[in-house]
Amino acid sequence: MKVRKIDHIGIAVKSIEESRGLYEQALGLKLSAIEEIPDRHVRVAFFDCGETEIELVEPLSPDSAVAAHIEKFGEGFYHMALEIENMDQSLSHLAGMGLKIRGGVPTAGARGSKIGFLNREDTRGVMLELVQKGETK
């Protein structure tokens, strides 16, 4: 498995519109994209922060995983995303260590990426997202 870099840090928020001022005005970060991901019932906003981005994740449905996270823990840190070279090789490597992505298969993520989340129970309490850029299959 080859991790290229930390792709982004996900922050769970109730509202992107109410939260983005902190990142744009107080921190001076530039909004690079806002996108809805209907399969995950979320809307995301990305802010440029050097090589890494900050992603605000807003639930679009009360039964989304992000809504459940906010209900349990409140707004705040949600996940750390690692950009990887090859999803299939990475999943094979992780399976050999007894780790699996939630749902069993990668899914389509923001901006045409292929993503998979590891369970926080298996990663010492940190939800890790694997991101392979430019692929949704």
Task: Give short descriptive properties of this protein.
single chain; 137 residues; alpha+beta; 8-stranded mixed beta sheet; 40% strand; globular
How would you summarize the topology of this molecule?
Layout: E1 3-12, H1 16-26, E2 30-37, E3 42-49, E4 52-59, H2 65-73, E5 76-84, H3 87-96, E6 107-108, E7 114-118, E8 128-132
Parallel strand pairs: 1-4, 5-8
Antiparallel strand pairs: 1-5, 2-3, 3-4, 6-7, 7-8
Describe what this molecule looks like in 3D.
The chain is 22% helix and 40% strand. The protein contains three helices and eight strands; from the N terminus they run βαβββαβαβββ. It has helices at 16-26, 65-73, 87-96, and strands at 3-12, 30-37, 42-49, 52-59, 76-84, 107-108, 114-118, 128-132. The protein has an eight-stranded mixed sheet. A hairpin with a 4-residue loop joins strand 2 (30-37) and strand 3 (42-49).
Distance between the termini: 19 Å
Backbone CA Rg: 15 Å
Number of strands: 8
Q: Please tell me the overall pLDDT.
A: 93
Q: Classify the beta-strand content into a percent band.
A: 35-45%
Structural class: alpha+beta
Largest sheet: 8 strands, mixed
- Counting copies of identical and different chains, the oligomeric state is single chain
Fraction of residues in H or I helices: 10-25%
Order of SSEs, N→C?
Answer: EHEEEHEHEEE
Shape, please? globular
Strand numbers in spatial order across the main sheet:
2-3-4-1-5-8-7-6
User: How many DSSP H or I helices?
Assistant: 3
Low-pLDDT residue spans:
none
